[in-house]
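Quick one, tokens below. Sequence please?
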């Protein structure tokens, strides 16, 4: 099961990386065009803000599985492993709850943009496909956070003193 999860996470990371490369290229090209040639890329602002949202949500999906987000361990170091696992399970369950809410609300936003034919300003590109890309990132986040929660609850994903999880040490 773990190799499948690793491959899935690699695909998520590749998508996040490609989106980041795309938005970076778009911003650089538009900025260069605007300041050197007085010709910015049409809709660069709208497209870049939507792509940045997609980058964030796909990156969050990767963090959801890897557990590589910023943590404050002031009290966690003082806890026994059993209590720490209970706290971690609770924290990840709360994160899962909020990710589910975010996914639900993002779906409403995609549906609203589709119904209203919302489009970019210059080229009138429909925005719902890009919002849909953000929504898919949030939906993938549900899967990755759920897997991480399972691993922590079963004791296979507990943080070790060096910051690595048992799962990451095996890979």
């Amino acid at each position: 099961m773990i190799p499948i999860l690793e491959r899935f996470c690699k695909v998520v990371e590749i998508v996040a990386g490609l989106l980041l490369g795309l938005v970076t290229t778009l911003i650089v090209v538009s900025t260069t065009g605007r300041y050197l040639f007085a010709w910015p890329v049409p809709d660069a602002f709208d497209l870049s803000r939507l792509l940045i949202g997609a980058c964030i949500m796909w990156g969050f999906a990767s963090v959801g599985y890897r557990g590589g987000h910023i943590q404050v361990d002031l009290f966690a170091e003082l806890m026994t492993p059993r209590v720490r696992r209970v706290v971690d399970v609770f924290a990840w369950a709360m994160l899962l709850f909020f990710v589910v809410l975010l996914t639900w609300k993002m779906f409403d936003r995609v549906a609203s943009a589709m119904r209203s034919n919302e489009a970019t300003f210059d080229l009138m590109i429909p925005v719902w496909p890009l919002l849909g890309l953000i929504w898919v990132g949030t939906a993938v986040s549900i899967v990755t956070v759920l897997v991480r929660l399972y691993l922590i609850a079963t004791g296979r994903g507990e943080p070790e003193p060096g910051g690595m999880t048992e799962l990451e040490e095996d890979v």
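Residues 159-171 have pLDDT under 50 and may be disordered. The chain is about 75% helix and 0% strand.
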